[in-house]
Amino acid sequence: MATVRVQEAPFDLAQETAALAAGRADAGAVASFLGICRADDGLAAMVLEHYPAMTERALARIAAEAEARWPLTGCTVIHRVGRILPGEPIVLVLTASAHRAAALESCAFLIDWLKTKAPFWKCEEFADGARRWVAARAEDEAAAARWVAAAADAPARRRREPERTTG
Amino acid sequence: MATVRVQEAPFDLAQETAALAAGRADAGAVASFLGICRADDGLAAMVLEHYPAMTERALARIAAEAEARWPLTGCTVIHRVGRILPGEPIVLVLTASAHRAAALESCAFLIDWLKTKAPFWKCEEFADGARRWVAARAEDEAAAARWVAAAADAPARRRREPERTTG
Amino acid sequence: MRVLYFAWLRQKVGLAEEEAAPPPEVRDVAGLMRWLAARSPGHAAAFADPRQVRAAVNQEFASPDTPVAPDDEVAFFPPVTGG
Amino acid sequence: MRVLYFAWLRQKVGLAEEEAAPPPEVRDVAGLMRWLAARSPGHAAAFADPRQVRAAVNQEFASPDTPVAPDDEVAFFPPVTGG
């Protein structure tokens, strides 16, 4: 049910929100997270690389996990790749539910898991020509780990571990 | 710094998001919560009443509390009043920060406090002509209370209690 | 003293606002509620269950023991349900 | 076996992908990393600190002891930094 996209083009927040809520009389709450390329000192652009054969599958799995944990009426994850300028959006997570707790929690969950479980890599390009691969942050691992603890606290909910497939 | 508005007219999510991020090179994360009038069985409209002399002041205080607790680069709270049809938006909370945790947490905080600390009342109008004032939910009190506990856990942050003024 | 009513309290009282001049022994929100309840059957119905009534004094949320004075604006309403 | 490299591993190896035919004693991700590291100075640099390297086997995140087989697609990359 979730909408998952990887694209170079910018996305339209209003259009995606309208699409999520369209025809869903039971959506009382829509939460969103928009990640934007900050204009840090001297940053000229951010280049997003990904692993095409794996990315959409990873995003779909993360979205399916959110849908298994919360009663969502809609879920959209869009991640841009390629060259992104300061001030431009990078990622959008949208969740809808009857009530706000499910929408807000699942939105936070999705961006936390996306940060640690989807194959994207950011390379910063600076005005002076320097390039630097962004390092993973320990805080991101900790933020993702709290949802594993949360799932362990709720034994009725099935916890999924990454599986190796041969497909 | 926060933008707080009470209005009958619908609001434009994309426009409000753009206004929040405009000229802020330091905003890397924008979180939003959109409350929508659900099309519950037989609901014809929701009528939102408020206490005009008090409402914007209450919203501004709630927004100021969020800005005191998190390092926000922007904060917008818009609440509609009057007659609202199923599917239409009721409330918008937008928060921006350098990093996602501050944006996501403050967004959840704002809607939780708004639900219990701002003078709005909802009256449901049904297709058969019946009207019913929506009752306050105990869960909303509990959701708001967890932020008081969170503030008590962080003694360095000033906790504000409602004050009586004579103004 | 200006007294305002909202939501179902407004409907039960039958007024959105009224002027009131309670006697000096009415010193706080709880006392004002008891005094107002005696004004009419509508007032009595509105204040029949004080646990369902919230108040604000001069646009700030108040508790039953919040003082009230002649120049105050006092509002009564059910628990809020916005958002 | 198809081997893919992303981000700074791609830059250090100097290739986005290559075919590899490791000997039968290369049975898992850790063994493959050691075997690949001997292919060129670029490979050696890419795998110099195995703790900085993550892997996927057939598009699923893998650990050092995940088995690898001749028909697999194995990818190496740094910890992910999307979002």
From TrEMBL, chains A, B:
Q: Which InterPro entries match?
A: MoaE_sf, Mopterin_biosynth_MoaE
Query: What is this protein's function per UniProt?
Result: Converts molybdopterin precursor Z into molybdopterin. This requires the incorporation of two sulfur atoms into precursor Z to generate a dithiolene group. The sulfur is provided by MoaD.
Question: Keywords, A to Z?
Answer: Molybdenum cofactor biosynthesis
Q: Which domain of life is it from?
A: Bacteria
> Which PANTHER family does the entry link to?
MOLYBDOPTERIN SYNTHASE RELATED
Q: In which pathway does it act?
A: Cofactor biosynthesis; molybdopterin biosynthesis
Please name the source species. Answer: Caldovatus aquaticus
Summarize subunit and interaction data from the UniProt record for this chain. Answer: Heterotetramer of 2 MoaD subunits and 2 MoaE subunits. Also stable as homodimer. The enzyme changes between these two forms during catalysis.
Question: Record's SUPFAM superfamilies?
Answer: Molybdopterin synthase subunit MoaE
The protein in question is named Molybdopterin synthase catalytic subunit
Pfam families membership: MoaE
* Family statement drawn from the similarity comment of this UniProt entry: Belongs to the MoaE family.
Is the keyword Endoplasmic reticulum in the record? no
Chain segments annotated as transmembrane: none
- 4Fe-4S as a keyword of this entry, yes or no, is no
Give its E.C. classification number.
Answer: 2.8.1.12
Q: Which residues form a coiled coil?
A: none
Report the catalytic activity.
Answer: 2 [molybdopterin-synthase sulfur-carrier protein]-C-terminal-Gly-aminoethanethioate + cyclic pyranopterin phosphate + H2O = molybdopterin + 2 [molybdopterin-synthase sulfur-carrier protein]-C-terminal Gly-Gly + 2 H(+)
Automatic annotation (TrEMBL), chains C, D:
Carries keyword Nucleotide-binding?
A: yes
What's the superkingdom here?
Bacteria
> Which keywords describe this protein according to UniProt?
Nucleotide-binding
- Which family does the entry's similarity section mention? Belongs to the MoaD family.
Which NCBIfam families does the UniProt entry name for this protein? moaD (TIGR01682)
Protein known as: Molybdopterin synthase sulfur carrier subunit
- Species for this entry: Caldovatus aquaticus
